[in-house]
Amino acid sequence: MTDSSKSAPLTFEGRVIAHRGASGHAPENTIAAMKRAAELGARWVEVDVKLSQDGALVLLHDDTLERTTNARGPVQNATAATLAGLDAGRWFGATFAGERIPTFVQFAEICATLKLQANIEIKPCAGRERETASALAAALRRHWTAPPPLISSFAESASEAFHAAMPEIARGFLTGTIPPDNRLAGLAGEYVAIHAGVNHLKATDVRRARAKGFQVLVWTVNDPQQAQALFDMGVDAVFSDFPERILALGA
Ligand code: G3P
Ligand code: MG
Question: Per the confidence metrics, is the pTM higher than 0.85?
């Protein structure tokens, strides 16, 4: 069985991953945001996935519906059919009215069509960590034709369950702060990248992670000057709501 931690480093053309798609320009985690990311020149997108009540994998960040749709209440009380009927665009702007919550299958199709690479963040509702990870593995086997995705999650149990199901797919360790060296050493055989929060990130942390063989990705960076400072520290790529600002820096 292939060990993903020993595979060639991931390449991040333009050093940017469009965060939730180009979410500064279009409603996050929608097909419109993926199209906009591609139009702006991004080659990578990050999305959040979770389960409907009846076990369908969809693109949504929050555990509740009110911020990004025209409905209220917990996502895990809503069926796939209910979610499919919601408006996930109007909150962002009138021109996006009628934009839907994408199913994972629709996301797989748009990545294949637009030749986008994906960082899929497993964002499970509490108590559904392993189930969400298993559903993602099954959906990838069945529907994914784009280049292999990079998987991450704040929920370690989800990440571990995903790895047990699909050890050949690379994972990033998603964290607010880069862990101490002894913890990094334990992660080194498991994860290819550290996905670190930008707040409190220090050059020494980036150096420590790179010294252990990790690629370093940083979220969420919308200021190009801040991005350049991170690249100067050795960061491989940043997640940005405005990918064109990072692309304008040049490779
Ligand atoms: O995966 C990076 C970033 O998306 C993590 O935070 O809350 O935007 O999903 P969040
Ligand atoms: Mg995310």
Answer: yes
Domain segments of the chain as ranges:
13-247
| Mean of the per-residue pLDDT values of the chain | 96
DSSP 45-102: EEEEEEE-TTS-EEE-SSSBSTTTSS--SBGGGS-HHHHHTS-SSTTT-GGGTTPPPP
Ion ligand 2 residues within 5 Å by Cβ: 48, 121
- For residue 23, give every residue at least 6 positions away whose Cβ sits within 8 Å of its Cβ, in sequence order, or none: 29, 33, 241
Q: Is 195 a catalytic residue?
A: no
**Per-residue model confidence (pLDDT) at position 237:** 98
Which pLDDT score is estimated for 1?
A: 40
Answer yes or no: 61 catalytic. Answer: yes
What contacts 202, CB < 8 A, 6 or more positions away?
A: none
What CATH number does the domain located at 13-247 have? 3.20.20.190
Residue 154 CA, ligand 2 centroid: distance in Å: 9
Averaged pLDDT, 195-222: 98
Name the residue with the closest Cα to ligand 1, atom 4.
19
Q: How far is the CA of 152 from the centre of ligand 1 (A)?
A: 9
Helix or strand or coil: residue 105? helix
Spatial contact of 59 and 102, defined as CB atoms under 8 Å apart: yes
Say if CB 220 and CB 16 are below 8 A apart. Answer: no
State the distance from the centre of ligand 1 to the C-alpha of 208, rounded, in angstroms. Answer: 22
Longest pairwise C-alpha distance within the chain: 50
